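User: I've been going back and forth on whether these two constructs are worth ordering. Before I decide, could you fold them both?

Assistant: Sure. I'll take them in the order you sent them. The first construct and its structure tokens:
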Amino acid sequence: MGDRLFLLATVYRVAFGVVAVTSQRGSRPTARWDNAMLGGLIGLAISILGAVTTWNRGDEFGPHWYPVALAVLALPQSWARRH
């Protein structure tokens, strides 16, 4: 898969991540925010684990910037869910 497809995957993952919690209805705003940040922390941990385990394992795991981007964007996209 080329860099363009990994970039596309990064963009749609962030978009889906932001939309996932903001579409919840009936929840208290603070509960939604807490859930979003907890999800972001879990995503951050899993992204770091994925980056560490696949770092120099070959081209089939994609470019190095992809897991780094997922880790870097995990908390900001969760914070964006609050608004």
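The second construct, handled the same way:
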Amino acid sequence: MDDESAKKLINVSYKDGAIGAAEETGVELLDFASIESKCIRWLWPGWLARGKLHVIAGAPGTGKTTIALSIAAAISAGSAFPDGRTTTPGKVIIWSGEDDPSDTLKPRLIAADADINQIVSVGPVTEYDPDRRANCTYPFDPARDIDALTKVLAPMDDLALIIIDPLVAAVGGDSNKNAEVRRGLMPLVNLAEAKNAALLGVSHYTKGTQGRDPLERVTGSLAFGAAARLVFGTVKQRQPEGEEPRARFLLARVKSNIGPDGGGFEYEFEQREIEPHILANRIKWGAAIDGDARAMIAEAEADPDDSRQDAVSWLREYLRDGRKNPKNVYNDGKAAEGYKEHQLDRAKKKLKVKSGRDGMNGPWYWELPETDSPREGPDVPF
């Protein structure tokens, strides 16, 4: 490239408060002074935003799709979300690569009191094949057919929610590579932004990731969680002792880049007969729960056995000699009995263990409360 050509490539000028497009490259640079500040367009304040990607992930059997349909039902009918808030009724479009619209999706929507007239399912794609000189029909593929869907949705001016289940199907390349995931999700995100609709993708937890950060548990590349503005996690809760046996679950707000994170809602399933011989599950929402999402999920997934009490006994004996560094507690607890950090954290809470640090820059410590210490233990060097 000669010097003159290089000058053309970088030659830009200010026009009407913005930096003009470089003719040779077509790149437009915008002066931030000319960009209008806008507020987040909440569909469900704090939980669902227009034009943004949301991911709901969890283990199989925790009702991720049923929750998505419950949210769709509330939007279609303008009925209440789990926290009692409502929104103006809007249209919902659903693509599912796993559930049949006739025997699964529609019955569950009806069971959730949806306005069926406001909800549409993405069907097959018809395209002219010049080689065959005929129209060919094939299943919709979110990794390939978003342009076709965008054209069909162009006249729909009140679209509020787009559901993609599973979201990983939108990635035509390797779903474990960040760049390919972001590239695959971009057409969907652009569609949601253009239609002023919230985008909700359904995903899974990777097997064997219990106890890890919920964002790291989302199946595939970390880009799924990073690209989403909000991520929700679902988990089946352990059965508290003494309660009547029933399946209870938790929806936690794992991440939010545009509002508060943490907190969630308890829920369970109930069946409704929508027509003779046609039964469908629906979500029965329970109490709102406050707290850190990782801690809530870890607590819900904890084994309902006596190991929790064993961890309490071990920690009490371990701290009887005096203060201990938390890192040593975790390491020694794992080495001695295989305890996980969240088990020891619960034992700490149950024993009302005091924690702090010596001075402003000193090491952190755990120690038993005075009522649980047979004597004043000396400070133990870390």
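Notes on the second construct follow. Residues 234 and 279 are 23 Å apart (CA to CA). DSSP finds eleven helices and 17 strands in the chain.
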